[in-house]
Amino acid sequence: MTDIRDYRPGVDRGLRSDAEQLLRDEAVDVIDLHLDTYIASRIARRDLQKRHRLGGPLDHRLYGMVDLPAAIEAGMTGGMWSITTNPFRPAKVRQRAFHRNLRGIQAEFERRPDRARVVRTLAEYHAARADGRHGAFIAVQGGNAVEHDPSIVDDMPDGLICRITLVHLTDSGFGATSAPAPNVPFLRRKSEGLTGLGRDFVRRCNAALILVDLAHISRTGFHDALAVHDPDLPPIVTHTGVDAVNRHWRNLTDDQVRAIAERGGTVGIMYQSSFLGEPYWGGRCEAVVDHAQHVIDLVGDDHVSLGSDWDGAIMPPRDLRKPADLPNLVASMLRRGWTHDRCRKVLGTNALRVIGAVRP
Length: 360
Description:
CATH architecture: Alpha-Beta Barrel
Order of helices and strands: HEHHEHEHEEHEHEHEHHEHH
Number of strands: 9
CATH class: Alpha Beta
Helix content: 25-40%
Largest sheet: 6 strands, parallel
Number of domains: 1
Number of helices: 12
């Protein structure tokens, strides 16, 4: 049988057909926990509502992976669309930019209500699906967007923000990132974990029913966050790899995966080839399933999801560069002998369960 890693159109059509049929099934939810497409919308004025066809050596690499028509056509029924913070701006400027971007991303979806709807809860997502709309959850990557005045999350209008990633690729007033500290004396980090402000921010997010995303955080900070996290609410890691499959500072250890599962959360597997342990320029979607399979073997199939990080300046597998490639990923799942029920869990059911536990 042809290996999915060598997939070409027309090869192993039966498996590809089964995957496409599963993605078209009205009972299947396809949720991506981390989409960074709004970066290009706000910086390069790239129209989220317009279909984009790229070419050249960077075709659907680094950027240009997702637009809303392509996502909907591929069967993506919902996703967490992120506002990513520029950490190099002063704190007050970051917060003003956050408010501006929050209005902007909401307006992007409201321009075509026939296609998508901004949703805040699981019930709103199901209502959008019933109306044939993509359910767009709004998220923030980098809690330092509101570091100047963290109390802003206490009264977030209409619960518009579904999830906040506590830190991103740099340390902040909330705590340390997982990225290695630069070996420069005045830039060396003061702490490996969360600060008091960061711990308080976790509590604020819990009280506001905003999902606390522990992607990007240092391993010490990860456990600091769980120590103060409401035990009745599941935490989430939206986009990551697994260290046991590929040792990398960006990936979760088995202890971290267990900690998320024990609290009822889910781990989203991302598509950055180098984090997956694949060649930087052109890995294979099989590697995404390698990482998902390890989570399943470790804690069961209720705690792993998809968190692509598409449009987040990543280099995705060559056969998973855009939503239209999702059948390749599902075909790889089926090749492993995964049941349709397991595929449905990973594609969306697990993500929706966690969202619903915080925002029914």
